[in-house]
């Protein structure tokens, strides 16, 4: 559907009206026959028809094109009232900027931001409504720190809320202690395995050193025995020399 023509200030060219809804074009498309339509209007029309609603020429969605630039410029320059005129907004601006204004308009009806509240309020009055809304949240006046809704004041029990909070904190603390315990056990187990592995390596190295020392001692004994044998042979040769 297009923009209600009654919202516009001054004359609106016939060529800027939708050929289906007869309101001012909104998000316009143009057929090869140069008739223009609101996008929503022509798409809805083509669900049940296959021709132009003005001259009955055959058209298809694939044949629709954006509005000519000069027509688009004329459309954007049109002046119209804000849709919140009935609530007191007196703004008149171009069609090109109307959406931006209406998104921020102080007279727009918006929902209350408090959960459970169904009130629709003008944007400019929202702060005042939030201050008295029965669904507004606030901190308990008795100092327990619990955030309550005004509608729940009669059911709020500080002792019960604090007890619940204490139980939650206790459960969280137990969980954290268990996590720390498991982490420490995991670290100790890892260090224990590392030390056992290192001890095994050192033990193997010690055994290898013992084996090397044993071989060296055996070699030393063999050398000492050979030396004694050699000395005895020298002494024997000396005796034989003397006898000769």
Provide the CATH topology of the domain at 5-104.
Herpes Virus-1
Low-confidence stretches: none
Strand content: 5-15%
CATH superfamily of the domain at 5-104: Zinc/RING finger domain, C3HC4 (zinc finger)
What is the element string, with H for helices and E for strands?
Answer: EEHEHEEHEEHEEH
Number of helices: 5
Assign the CATH class of the domain at 5-104: Alpha Beta
Compute the gyration radius: what is it?
A: 49 Å
Q: Biggest sheet, in brief?
A: 3 strands, antiparallel
Q: Tell me which oligomeric state these chains represent.
A: single chain
Distance between the termini: 146 Å
- Give the fraction of residues assigned to helices: 40-55%
Secondary-structure class: mainly alpha
- Strand order, biggest sheet? 2-1-3
What's the average pLDDT?
87
Shape: elongated
SS elements, strand count: 9
The appropriate CATH architecture of the domain at 5-104 is 2-Layer Sandwich
Domain TRAF-type: 101-144
Zinc finger (TRAF-type): 101-144
Pfam family, one: zf-TRAF
Organism: Tachuris rubrigastra
Molecular structure report:
Residues 163-243 form a coiled coil. A zinc finger (TRAF-type) spans 101-144. The protein is mainly alpha-helical. Among the domains are: 5-104, Herpes Virus-1, CATH 3.30.40.10; 109-149, 2-Layer Sandwich (Herpes Virus-1), CATH 3.30.40. It contains five helices and nine strands; from the N terminus they run E-E-H-E-H-E-E-H-E-E-H-E-E-H. The protein has helices at 39-48, 69-77, 95-104, 126-132, 158-243, and strands at residues 28-30, 36-38, 65-66, 79-81, 92-94, 109-111, 120-122, 137-139, 147-149. Strands 2-1-3 form a three-stranded antiparallel β-sheet. Strands 4-5 form a two-stranded antiparallel sheet. A two-stranded antiparallel ribbon has the order 6-7. A hairpin with a 7-residue loop joins strand 8 (137-139) and strand 9 (147-149).
